[in-house]
Amino acid sequence: MAGVNKVILVGNLGADPEVKHLEGDKVVANLRLATTEAYKDRNGNRVENTEWHDLELWDAQARIAEQYLKKGSQIFVEGKIKSDTWQDDQGNNRKRVKIRVLSFTMLGSRPDGQNNGDTNPNTMSRPTTSNATMPANANDMDDSDDDLPF
Amino acid sequence: MAGVNKVILVGNLGADPEVKHLEGDKVVANLRLATTEAYKDRNGNRVENTEWHDLELWDAQARIAEQYLKKGSQIFVEGKIKSDTWQDDQGNNRKRVKIRVLSFTMLGSRPDGQNNGDTNPNTMSRPTTSNATMPANANDMDDSDDDLPF
Amino acid sequence: MAGVNKVILVGNLGADPEVKHLEGDKVVANLRLATTEAYKDRNGNRVENTEWHDLELWDAQARIAEQYLKKGSQIFVEGKIKSDTWQDDQGNNRKRVKIRVLSFTMLGSRPDGQNNGDTNPNTMSRPTTSNATMPANANDMDDSDDDLPF
Amino acid sequence: MAGVNKVILVGNLGADPEVKHLEGDKVVANLRLATTEAYKDRNGNRVENTEWHDLELWDAQARIAEQYLKKGSQIFVEGKIKSDTWQDDQGNNRKRVKIRVLSFTMLGSRPDGQNNGDTNPNTMSRPTTSNATMPANANDMDDSDDDLPF
DNA sequence: TTTT
DNA sequence: TTTT
Questions:
Q1: Where is there biased composition of kind Polar residues (chains A, B, C, D) (predicted)?
Q2: Closest residue, chain B, to D51 (C-alpha)
């Protein structure tokens, strides 16, 4: 019935993606994403608040994540809230919430791209190569009718 | 690159959809949507502000709009900003902005569905019949992997 | 940093709001919201999927919810994901996710359902009485109550 | 009523902000933001599509933009669509759409691009000085300046 | 566990 | 006019 369930996040990965290749060409990637907000408390002191999100990506999205994302990567995410519910050993109802990612975009590429002198593999500073960015936006495939004569 | 261009609207149609059936099974629908916000001005008086949006829908979305929407319908819209630019007769650069709708959802259905005694065809109070709602949400087709064994 | 944590929902309340009036004029309301999506599975059968969300509203928003919302109400919600973490009796880390509502808007249903005596077919005739809608769109001005002892 | 009018953008500035300081401590900044999407056309060729947006920021947001943003800056923007309508010299109705920015966040790019002297391989080496980011996330507290003579 |  |  007329439902909308949409999540929009911008944050950094707390760890490299965890990727599982399943039977039948299925791939699932799990990411930990931190979104941090800063504000002043009532005493005017700056306070930081970090929320950690469990992201789940499937198939094409998972493969792109595996190839291009790593600990520290900054991404824009669009997805939906999705929960698993089950009973634990004591028979208690349990619930776990994750974000099912529908599309994501790598952020933080240097505007000038060229020489950043970065030779260290552990830094996040890689620009999002163009063929990475393209599929990352892959959910807008229906644009082909944009070139109608109107 | 890494671009995001997203518009989310909730409002009411100012007129019935204008639908054109084109060659090659193409269909385009144009809608006028009003979003109204209310706030208090500096004197504490309530002020209403209405913004009118030009929406454009193609193909499947256009057909659903044609079939189920009418003047007054309340909808949730997700889309993107899209502008046309051209030169007018005087050689001035002109620009027109519209919202390319990617998905929409009909609102205002009664949760309990049951008879509301409404027999007037021109009122907006129609519930969104279930087969209308389904295609209106049609952009989430990739959910079929939801039923994996995890 | 540079974080964004945004949730947008449209759904119906599964129960009347639970409201607690606390010391110091603080008010908190908890809502259960269902967002339902429908899609066709691989066999072409229509499947419905309902996700339940725990919403938390404070102060002005909570008061409006208490006054105008009830089981079945359809609302548009904007908020953010917010989790509590703790250790349970067995020393296991536990986490509970809720949606902290920053603003909400009542959608095209009569707040109380009952006959509104509307006999004018052409009116946009809508519900959510005007003084309800106005504060319902008010933005939450501060996050300072985030540090309440809950 | 019950309106929602929300725009979310991620893109790069096409030019430095244009800032005007007005009487009464009012400040307005105008930005040109490009959002680029890439997709494959029906022949499998990669196509890029850039949309240009006119952003308008007031007061606190405008001051932050003036201080920290420049041509090429990548930002996340949340705002609403706002149009001006008028009659031109020929008496034709004209309309111009812009995005009224309610909040923005600087994304992972060095504000000034050039040498940041970062020699530490493990840092995300990033810019957007902390006091810039903080206020940049501040919400615009009032719409009352909407009725300025512009 | 990220980031600034 | 940005970015990749």
A1: 112-136
A2: B82
D47 is near strand F: CB distance < 7 Å: no
Q: pTM score, two decimals?
A: 0.81
Q: How many angstroms separate the CA of residue C142 from the nearest CA in chain D?
A: 9
Q: What is the pLDDT of residues B67-90, one digit of tens each?
A: 999 999 999 999 999 999 998 888
Residues 66-85 of A with CB under 7 A from strand E: 71-72, 74
Residues 6 or more apart whose Cβ sits within 8 Å of residue A117: none
Note the pLDDT tens digit of each residue in D19-46.
Answer: 999 999 999 999 999 999 998 888 999 9
Nearest-angstrom CA–CA distance, C100 and C145: 11
- Nucleotide E3: nearest residue by CA–C1'? C1
Given a contact cutoff of 8 angstroms between Cβ atoms, the answer to whether B47 and B77 are in contact is no
Dihedrals φ, ψ of C14, to 5°? -85, -10
Phi first, then psi: give them for residue A145, nearest 5 degrees.
-85, 5
CB within 8 Å: A106 and B28: no
Kindly report, residue by residue over C70-117, the tens digit of the pLDDT.
Answer: 999 999 999 999 999 998 888 888 999 999 999 999 998 544 434 333
Distance CA D78, CA D76 (A): 7
Q: How far is C105 from chain D (nearest CA, A)?
A: 6
pLDDT of residue D108 exceeding 90, the answer is no
**Cβ atoms of residues A115 and D115 within 8 Å:** no
Nucleotide with C1' nearest the D113 CA = F3
pLDDT tens column, B7-28 = 999 999 999 999 999 999 999 9
Q: Which chain D residue is nearest to residue A140, measuring alpha carbons?
A: D39
Q: How many Å does it take to go from CA B85 to C1' F3?
A: 21
* Nearest DNA or RNA nucleotide to D71 (CA to C1'): F2
- CATH fold of C7-32+48-128, please? OB fold (Dihydrolipoamide Acetyltransferase, E2P) (2.40.50)
